[in-house]
Design goal:
With about 130 residues, the chain is α+β, with helices and mostly antiparallel strands. The protein is built from three helices and seven strands. The chain binds guanosine-5'-monophosphate (5GP) and zinc ion.
């Protein structure tokens, strides 16, 4: 059976998809899959990574479906700004903003992106090596 997505067009003329039924992070955003929520803003949700790589490891996602950072950057600057603001709010709420934290957008295969719904990893609470692997 064919899958039909409802596609809307943003004010900037870019196609976006409010929700993709088989997308894990869309399902977390809609409450269909449980997650340990940290913060919420009108268009973003922050929740703990199920397999944390640091004492703080939180994912910040738009509630609507954008597959990767390229799609988000092309679509809506105000959403990107809201997401970055939430990244810092998460760091502040987790008590890691003073000592420092890392923000990672894995984008595409070479970066190891596994979940094709754009997400910022917010990592901190310990010294983080550089360069990353
Ligand atoms: P990526 O490699 O795509 O940048 O990162 C995906 C992240 O999603 C991984 O760090 C992984 O641990 C996390 N993840 C995968 N499945 C789940 C899940 O069901 N719940 C939560 N909270 N995180 C998940
Ligand atoms: Zn999605």
């Amino acid at each position: 059976m064919a899958t039909i997505y409802v596609v809307a067009v943003t004010g900037e003329g870019q196609a976006r998809i409010p929700s993709v039924p088989e997308c894990l992070f869309c399902r977390i955003a809609s409450g269909g899959v449980p997650a340990s929520r940290v913060l919420e803003s009108p268009r973003t949700l922050s929740f703990r990574d199920i397999s944390p790589e640091a004492p703080t490891h939180v994912l910040v996602v738009p509630k609507e479906h954008y597959p990767d950072l390229a799609a988000l950057a092309a679509a809506d600057g105000s959403l990107l700004a809201e997401l970055v603001s939430q990244v810092h709010e998460v760091a502040a709420a987790e008590g890691i903003s003073a000592r420092g934290y890392r923000v990672v957008f894995n984008t595409g295969a070479d970066a190891g992106q596994v979940v094709p719904h754009v997400h910022a990893h917010v990592l901190g609470g310990r010294g983080l090596g550089w360069p990353p692997g």
